[in-house]
Amino acid sequence: MATFRSGFTLWKMVQAARELTEDTRVRERIDVVLAIMGGFGGTYGKGRPLVDSLEDVAQEPLLHQDFGLAQRFQRFAAYAGGELFLDILEMYYDEEARQRSEEGMRRMAAMGAPMWSW
Question: What's the whole-model pTM score?
Fold first, then answer.
């Protein structure tokens, strides 16, 4: 049994990705994903229909040689299908989350450094 996921973070990422293309067909497919997700404060729809729609979006940019956008939606689909953790997705596409994580790592290293310096 597959574990499907979705949420506000994915919704924000899909919206941000929509702004990366001017292609009408790609935007139309992204709009289908956003409709499934239901928008801000909605249920952020999840399940096979969301995964299928995200995979569908990933196919269209390939026709236009936009491999970065295609890969982004492949990763979104992997997250929604339970194959990729949100932390990994955030490291790729959420600058604020990446900075918070890096700051946390620096703090941990700073706390541990005195124990290792004899």
Answer: 0.81
